[in-house]
Amino acid sequence: RPHGTPAANRKVLIVGAGDAGAMVAREMQKNPQLGQQPVGFLDDDPVKGQKQIHGLRVLGTIATLATVVEQRRVDEVVIAIPTAGGRTVRDVVERCQALGLPSRVMPGIYELLGGKLSVNRLRSVDIADLLRRPQVNAHSESPEYLKGACVVVTGAGGSIGSELCRQVAYAGPSRLLLLGHGENSIFDIAAELRTRFPNVAVQAMIADVRDRDRILRIFRTVQPQVVFHAAAHKHVALMEDNAAEAVTNNVTGTRNVVDAAIAVGVHRFVMVSTDKAAAPSNMMGASKRVAELIVQRAARTQKRAFVVVRFGNVLGSRGSVVPIFKAQIERGGPVTVTHPEVRRYFMTIPEAVHLILQAGGIGVGGELFVLDMGEPVLLREMAADMIRLSGLDESEVPIVFTGLKPGEKLNEILWEDGATIEPTARGDIRRVREAAVADDGRLDDIINRLTEAAARDDRDRIARLFQECVPSVNLTLRPTESAPGPSLVQKQPSV
Fold first, then answer.
1. Assuming Cys at both sites, which of 42, 186, 265, 283 could form a disulfide with 243, CB separation 3.0 to 4.6 Å?
2. Cβ pair 112, 23 in contact under 8 A
3. Which of 11, 48, 116, 276 is catalytic?
4. Which pLDDT belongs to residue 139?
């Protein structure tokens, strides 16, 4: 049956018989000019099934929606469960879509009470609602190796770095050094940690990982036992236009931190990398792939627990799609997605920190660890989820496709062809062994040449050197440039 009843007499079924649902029903009854007539409620709570609310009954559970809609000739469904998770909301919305029935998600109860009709009427979207998979349990006991240790976190002011600092502080280190280049973000996280963890000696240092001498002086002063290296440039499009920065920060900076760690005898070192380092197609990914090689070389030559973790896209981190989509929805759209078929692996910030901390405990040396993130998510579906979960639909906030950006892949991969994937004691974390590793003796030479090319801001030279170092790199070169020189890669298993 087509649901086309005139607006003056639209029958509305309310999902949720709590305070919010009762308020929605009462407002409709008190304001007949709205043209909405509540016919009853659906609620999965058996206790509420026995009640009458403003003269209306609970007609069934969410599972009975189709039957109730047909019996009561419902024209619209309003979802009024402010505390419901994304799965419940998505379930109701999808049931309505299958019936060709309009649905709306009401915002939180306080927004309703205040009568706000600005962007504040949007329902708060829980980040975990967007994963389309169960979230990995990231609340296991704090790792023993952090208790009483002196710990350094680089990039400590970032979205991931700051949460990592909180979890490290919770584990009870003897000292926690926050190292970062942005003074405001470092100031904020240092102030928070000193308040929350008064028994932890928190020290904040403003320093750039590109300053080799300063990093070494800091490490010699602090004498850390554990280092988490999260400082990096991460935005693909920005690094395509600023390749020299990708080199100096991600490659040279990583070598500086690793060399300082070796000099003072650091026992455990975890570097944060990205899925864009697997068969890289952009400057950022290529720079992180070379940074991985630096850490893995140190593990082999020094026989220490230096390891790498590869992330997917981190939901809610600065510059990620979620805050961008949220801002676009608040402005009324459109929500921009590069391509209808672009897919990405996603993880939450707690999952990312969980992977870092666990890798630091189970790593022996040279390993590459990846979290089981399920199947990659279509960005257009995530955008549609955010619009629906905010309480709107695509007629109000459209999705538009803008085209892939330079260096951007349609689909990301977590490891390269020929890699061996092994389980770990942590079932949600995999150990990856990729077939190609750079020749230890010549890695420094190519990094030096990369640094020289970066000093001249010679993007094409940088691209050729990346390709020379890692055969899987696929970067755009000018047609007139010569082919890359001989590979510096030996085909042998990594450790």
1. 283
2. yes
3. 276
4. 60
